[in-house]
Amino acid sequence: MALPELNFDKTECGTLRLILRGEWRLVNPLPSPQALKDILSSGEGITGAAFDTRELGDWDSGLLTFLLGVINQCALGKLSLDRTGLPSGVNRLLALATAVPERQGARRAGVRLPFLERVGGSAIDFWRSLLDMLDFIGEITLSFLRFFTGRARFRTSDMMLILQECSADALPIVSLISLLVGLILAFVGAIQLQLFGAGIYVADLVGIGTTRAMGAIMTGIIMAGRTGASFAARIGTMQVNEEIDALQTTGISPIDFLVLPRMIALAVMMPLLTLYADLMGILGGLIVGVLCLDQSIMEYYYETIRAVGLTNVWIGVFSGFVYGVLVALAGCMRGMQCGRSASAVGDATTSAVVTGIVSIVVATAIITVICNILRI
Fold first, then answer.
1. Contact at 8 Å (CB) between 186 and 202?
2. Does 199 reside within a domain?
3. Number of other CB atoms surrounding residue 294 within 10 Å
4. Of 1, 166, 190, 263, whose CB is crowded by the most CB atoms within 10 A?
């Protein structure tokens, strides 16, 4: 293996010829461009430089590093450099390495719009999203009409899988959260009620609060983060893979085939999950009442029965039904509105969760006001 060599030869016209021999690889000791600098500083009337690589062997990035140093030395000495003697591959790599970077300020900077224009743009976007939501609700309404008349087309097996996902698969997380919420309500109430010797009324607080509002709200939020996000991600992925376009091409309505089963499943199962969450919340309050307030199980049970009426239970069940519809609507709508990229699926999933939770909060306020007006 021939070691790398660097020789200089000055022509009659004042051009310095750099003769490269041997294998210019990083495993070998490579010459330094400093030798060229010494020759240029000697002032021998050199007007330019050229390369002679006829005896050059194998090479790698070590040769490129040396040549970049030579180019810099010639630029500092204001000498012309002829690269025609270099191999074509070396010339291409040097062209990439010495490409002129983008000039600062060449790209047009982003223009910050005036405040009123930004407000107007946001208002227009909100109005368009509202129209899209109304259009989607109209399509779902027509789909339900086709379902009640027996003309909706979807697979029963898909419906059963979605029912399982919205019910049995959600029980562990619903159990945990509802139990903890009941514990928290009981602890907060016990601290204040014990000051007045009214610890028995912890059962009233937990029972009414859980059955009337907290059971349905916490179940709705759980399903928004779990099932609503799942709906958006699955439908959004189908949108990216053009599977929804394939359904439309074959004459199958995506609303009937994808959205309708999910709407029905979540609307049916949410009231049942709400009842289960109520039970777990009351159980959490029972644990606090027995262990911290020295109440008996039967004493807590009878106080709960006395305080909680069917009106509170039905309000919670109805709220759970509404939340189920809203969560399914948000998840399916964001999935159908998903773009055609992987990042769009993540955006649709995030938007579905946010939309679902905000809808639950707004619906809770509306139901509370209506119940107050009706005095129930």
1. yes
2. yes
3. 9
4. 166
